[in-house]
Amino acid sequence: MKAGIVGLPNVGKSTLFNCLSNAKAQSANFPFCTIEPNVGVVNVPDPRLKKLEELVNPERVIPATVEIVDIAGLVKGASKGEGLGNQFLGNIRETDAIIHVLRCFDNDNIVHVDGNVDPIRDKETIDIELQLKDLEAVDKKLEKVKRAARTGNKEAIKEEETLLKLKDALEAGTSVRAVELSDEVKEEFVKPLQLITDKPVMYLCNVDDESAVSGNKYVDLVREAVKDENAEVLVLAVGTEADITELEDYEERKEFLADMGLEEPGSAKLIRSAYQLLNQQTYFTAGVKEVRAWTVNIGSTAPQAAGVIHTDFEKGFIRAEVIKYDTYAEFGSEAKVKEAGKLKVEGKEYIVQDGDIMHFLFNV
Ligand SMILES: Nc1nc2c(ncn2[C@@H]2O[C@H](COP(=O)(O)OP(=O)(O)OP(=O)(O)O)[C@@H](O)[C@H]2O)c(=O)[nH]1
Ligand SMILES: [Mg+2]
C-alpha cells in the first residue's frame, strides 16, 4: 500500500517527501525538477511503541511503515500528454491514496507555474486532469461493454449503466469517489478500473512558518472549497520542516519546532493520516526479543492478521490471545494482565482492532 504526493510543479512535493523519508529527493526552485518518482518507506510514529518498549524492554523495536511516492508535477493538459503528462499519471494510478499538495504561501522568489498563488484554482487544475484521465479509461471500457450490452447480457447492461453514470459525473467535474453507488456495484465494476479519482485523498496546505499552527487565508479558502468532500485538510510548513529534519541534534529540532508552536513535527501527523487514508491499522506483538507494530487492513480477521507475519500462521491458525493496548499499559505486563483475567482468547472470526497486542497459536 502506498500514498502518492501529487500537485502542480514547484509547490513543494519533493521537499515534503524529504521531511518524511530518509531517502532524499532532489528539490529545486524550477518546475519539473522531479521526473522519475521517488519512493520512500516511512516509519509510522506511534507513542504506544515507546510505552511498550519501556514495559517489555525488548532487544529491538520495529515500527509500522508506510510507502510514500513523490511524483512529478502535473500541469494543465497533462491528460493529453502536456508536460510529461501521461507518464506521470501512470505513476499516480499505481498508488492507493493521494496526498494533494497545495501551495498556500506567498514568496515571489518561488516560481508558480500559473503566475500567482491560488490554491483553489490549482486544486481544480489537478482535479480536472485526473478526471480527464479517468474519463479516458471509462470511455475505453464503455466501448467494450456496449457491445455485450446490446446482446441483452444483464450483467453488461448493469455495467453499462454504471459506466455511463461515471462518465456523466466526470464530464461534470465530479471525482469518482463522490459518485453515489452501492458497495456491490463499486466492488464489481468500479474497483477493477483503478480510477485515480476513486482513490482516497487528503489535502496538504504548504504554508510559511508563521502559519504552521493556525493556517492563513489560503488555508481557509481550501477548507471551504473541500468541505463537502469528507477529506482531511492538513497544514504544514513544508520548507521549514525540511530544514529542521536536516538538523542532527534532537534537542535543537525540538526547539525549532517549539518556535513554530509545534510539539511534534507536522510530518508525524501527516504520516499517521496517510496510514489511515490507506485504511491501515496497527496491531502489536510484544516479546522480549522484539516489540513490533504490524500493519493490517481495517476489518481484517485474526487469521489474516497472523498471515502478515507468516502465511503458515494464517493457514495453521488455531486461536489468538489478545490484550488491548490500554489494558497492557494499565497492568504493566502480560503476566499481570493474565492474573487479572483480562487476556482474551479469540477465534477465526475475530476482527482485529487497532492497538491489539496479539499472540497467535497455530500448527503447521
Ligand atoms: N518559501 C518556501 N519555499 C518552499 C516551501 N516548500 C518548498 N519550497 C521551495 O520551492 C521549490 C520547489 O520545491 P520542490 O519540493 O522541488 O517542488 P516540487 O513540487 O517537488 O516540484 P516538481 O518536482 O518540479 O514538480 C524549492 O526551491 C523549495 O525549496 C515552503 O514551504 N516555503
Ligand atoms: Mg519534485
How does this structure look, described?
The chain has 364 residues and is α/β, with parallel strands linked by helices. The protein folds into 3 domains: 2-43 and 65-116 and 200-277, Rossmann fold (3-Layer(aba) Sandwich), CATH 3.40.50; 128-197, Obg-related GTPase Ych/YyaF, coiled-coil domain (DNA polymerase, domain 1, Orthogonal Bundle), CATH 1.10.150; 299-362, Beta-grasp domain (Ubiquitin-like (UB roll)), CATH 3.10.20.30. Helix content is 42%, strand content 19%. The chain contains 14 helices and 12 strands. A 6-stranded mixed β-sheet has the order 2-4-1-5-6-7, sandwiched between helices. β8 and β9 (290-297) form a beta hairpin. The radius of gyration is 23 Å and the shape is flat. The protein starts with a strand and ends with a strand. Bound molecules: guanosine-5'-triphosphate (GTP) and magnesium ion. The site of magnesium ion has 6 residues, from α1. It comes from Nonlabens xylanidelens. This is Ribosome-binding ATPase YchF. Keywords: ATP-binding, Magnesium, Metal-binding, Nucleotide-binding. Its cofactor is Mg(2+). Residues 1-256 form the OBG-type G domain.
Task: Provide a brief overview of the structure.
This protein is an alpha/beta fold and 364 residues long. The chain has helices at residues 13-20, 47-56, 85-93, 119-150, 154-171, 183-190, 217-225, 238-246, 250-260, 266-277, 302-309, 311-315, 325-331, 334-339, and strands at 2-6, 38-43, 60-62, 65-70, 97-103, 201-206, 233-236, 280-286, 290-297, 317-324, 344-346, 356-362. It is flat and about 65 Å long.
